[in-house]
Design a protein that fits this description.
InterPro entries: MBL_Glyoxalase_II, Metallo-B-lactamas, RibonucZ/Hydroxyglut_hydro. Residues 58-221 form the Metallo-beta-lactamase domain. By secondary structure, the protein is α/β, with parallel strands linked by helices. The chain has one domain: Metallo-beta-lactamase, Chain A (4-Layer Sandwich), CATH 3.60.15.10. Helices cover 25% and strands 28% of the residues. The chain contains 7 helices and 14 strands. The chain has helices at residues 7-10, 32-42, 79-88, 109-116, 193-208, 227-230, 234-240, and strands spanning 48-54, 59-66, 69-73, 92-97, 119-123, 136-138, 143-146, 149-156, 163-170, 173-177, 182-183, 186-187, 216-218, 225-226.
Length: 242
């Protein structure tokens, strides 16, 4: 499956049993810490997902709702739309994750933080370029703690110095929130071939090799996809160089 990647980004309840299978191409080669963090999350309150697209750049903003709290992923623009989304789902935004430092994902960030008092999480490599104070710096293999859950963090280098992706169990599937590092049809925009190779490597080893085909991928722009839909095209992406 291939879909158009937006130029703005290229330039996108039931307990689950996890099997640590060492024999398949997408083996879940996780540390025990990450594994038990996922199991803990699955045994807590259900997680529901809400979404809104904002701005002329079709930025995706995601709301992970747990009880009466919500984690907002990317306060991209239109702060009132984000607050309305929370109100419609009867939750309060108590945490915000900025996936990376590009301006189009941060336009509503200062206002949202001021109005909600939310804790701000951001990837350590990109933090200096983000337009608001960061409360918690995320590094590779960290977990993001929220409302009794702990979501594994993967730092992906190449689209920016280092953006964050998090893995979240919702319903019977894993869901990856990846910012602009992975889209239907390819990885995110990079400035040079070295950055392209780095991003493709990180996406391959940290996402495709660790999570199964039915994992849902939620990008920073455009439509969602699955790892299974994109996996057959990895070598094609490598060969074309974008």
């Amino acid at each position: 499956m291939q879909r158009c990647i937006p130029d703005s980004a290229r330039g996108l309840r039931h307990p689950q049993t996890i099997v640590l299978n060492q024999t398949t191409p997408h083996s879940n080669i996780w540390t025990l810490f990450q594994f038990f963090a996922i199991v803990e999350s699955m045994n807590n309150q259900d997680i529901t997902l809400a979404h809104v697209s904002v701005s002329e750049m079709d930025n995706n903003c995601y709301l992970l709702c747990i009880g009466k709290e919500a984690l907002l992923i990317d306060a991209a623009d239109n702060p009132q739309a984000l607050l309305d989304l929370a109100a419609e789902n009867n939750v309060s935004i108590t945490a915000v994750l900025s996936t990376h430092s590009h301006w189009d994902h941060l336009r509503a960030l200062p206002q949202i933080l001021e109005q909600t008092g939310a804790k701000h999480f951001a990837p350590q490599p990109d933090a200096a370029d983000i337009n608001a104070p960061v409360d918690v710096l995320l590094t590779d293999s960290d977990v993001l703690p929220f409302a009794g859950h702990h979501f594994p963090v993967h730092i992906l280098h190449g689209h920016t110095t280092g953006g964050a992706a998090i893995a979240v169990p919702i319903g019977e599937n894993m869901h990856l929130f990846v910012g602009d590092s992975l889209f239907p049809g390819g990885i995110g925009k990079t400035e040079n071939h070295q950055d392209f190779i780095q991003l493709l490597h990180d996406v391959s080893t940290k996402l495709f090799q660790k999570y199964p085909d039915d994992t849902v991928v939620h990008p920073g722009h455009g439509k969602s996809t699955t790892l299974g839909a994109e996996r057959p095209h990895l070598e094609e992406w490598r060969a074309r160089g974008w």
